[in-house]
Amino acid sequence: MAHDHGQHGEHGHEHGQGHAHTHIDFAEMLPMLEQEAELFTPLYAEAAGWLRERQPEPEMIVDAGSGPGVISCLLADTFPKARVVAVDGAGPLLEAARARAARLGVADRFSTLEAELGDGLGDLEYPADLLWASRSLHHVGDQRATLAGFAERLAPGGTLALLEGGLPSRYLPRDIGIGRPGLQARVDAVEQEWFTRMRRELPGAAEETEDWAGLLTAVGLRHAATRTFLLDLPAPLSEEGRAFVATSLGHRRTGLAEGLEPDDLALLDRLLDVDDKASVYHRPDVFVLAAMTVYVGVKA
């Protein structure tokens, strides 16, 4: 499991691994996961600040599906007295998380645990005062059972912060002057079909209405709050922002190719051609606009 954008509307982890299979190798996606989480840091920092108002001094924080640890380290910075445990099923991502914690000077209160979320949170020594799960739950077959497992690992009065849903991100105007208007909406539609297949093929897959607040209540937590956070990086976009947009569109171009129309594939090729003045590397109207929703549940 790993943090992702999209999805993480968009369902995260920049899926789009093709229609032939829906297995996702998150370790292979390490550079993209880091690139995205770093660009989205202002959004995550705002969310963490909001959580600090609700849970001011947690002693133990668990990042369930931590990926390369960008947000885990942000949580360590936001809560300077807390111990942070990054939990993920991909060893190479946890290795990157430990290296990041060392670079940022929080290694003395930062640890990792390799475990699949669907199998529980492994051998956690202590219950969590704050459990953060960012776009990792939807990669588990039985989301309700996994949420129940999260709830069990909370200390009394502990907080579960679940980041799921939001709105599809936008990088370009509807009409960009080349190709048929509405490219991103069409890509989104193909990606939604991919996501439905991905969910269906997960081990132990169980259909679940995506009423996240309702699911928190169903597993015995009190739904305390819901809030959506915005990342608004207007044009003209920084080089880092352009690089992220190119990575994101390129990943979809590769992974969703079988479901996209030939004219949209050709349009994506132009947008990704560094020598084309109409590409995302050069055009003046590229931006990043994303909205992500956090649902908070509290254990009695």
TrEMBL record:
Keywords: Methyltransferase, Transferase. The keyword Methyltransferase applies. Residues 1-20 are annotated as: Disordered. One of its GO terms (biological process) is methylation. Residues 62-160 form the Methyltransferase type domain. Pfam families: Methyltransf_12 (PF08242). Coiled coil: none annotated. It comes from the Bacteria. This is Class I SAM-dependent methyltransferase. One of its GO terms (molecular function) is methyltransferase activity.
